[in-house]
Amino acid sequence: MSFQIIIGIVQRGHQLGRKLGFPTANITPTELSGVKLGIWAVRIELLDTVYWGVANIGFRPSVNNTTTPILEVFIFDFSADIYGETIKIELIKHIRSEKKFSSLELLKDAIADDVVKAKIYLYDYESC
């Protein structure tokens, strides 16, 4: 199987993911042509280790609606400081399109649901 791969340097964001209980590594992708925006189950290579997670690629309509798409990835079972590190993100399964939520609580609930869906899919994917 061939998946799209995005590589970038982890940048400091607004720390909102951390406040919601889902800290993210943020990158500004240089190339997104052909990439479907939205929520993805992902495989991550970072510091010579493979991790799994869920990523949002898009404009953050619930928060500040950026003009340039960004990629935010929540890495399962991970908490190290990785600002400035190179991260490789492999898009495995598109979960849903990006959506604007009317409150941060609804956004938090949606992220929690996305995490569950990604874990279920990645568990089956990893077992193959």
Protein described:
This protein is an alpha+beta fold and 128 residues long. It has a single domain (4-127), classed as Riboflavin kinase-like (Elongation Factor Tu (Ef-tu), domain 3, Beta Barrel). The protein is built from two helices and six strands. It has helices spanning 16-20, 104-127, and strands spanning 4-9, 25-27, 38-46, 49-58, 70-75, 86-96. Strands 1-6-3-4-5-2 form a six-stranded antiparallel sheet. The model has no long low-confidence stretch (mean pLDDT 90).
Condensed summary:
The protein is of the alpha+beta class and 128 residues long.
Keywords:
128 residues; Elongation Factor Tu (Ef-tu), domain 3; 6 strands; 23% helix; 2 helices; alpha+beta
Chain-wise SSE layout:
Layout: E1 4-9, H1 16-20, E2 25-27, E3 38-46, E4 49-58, E5 70-75, E6 86-96, H2 104-127
Antiparallel strand pairs: 1-6, 2-5, 3-4, 3-6, 4-5
CATH topology category name: Elongation Factor Tu (Ef-tu), domain 3
Gyration radius, to the nearest Å? Answer: 14 Å
Give me the side-by-side strand order of the main sheet. 1-6-3-4-5-2
Beta-strand share of residues: 35-45%
Fourth-level CATH superfamily: Riboflavin kinase-like
What order do the helices and strands follow? EHEEEEEH
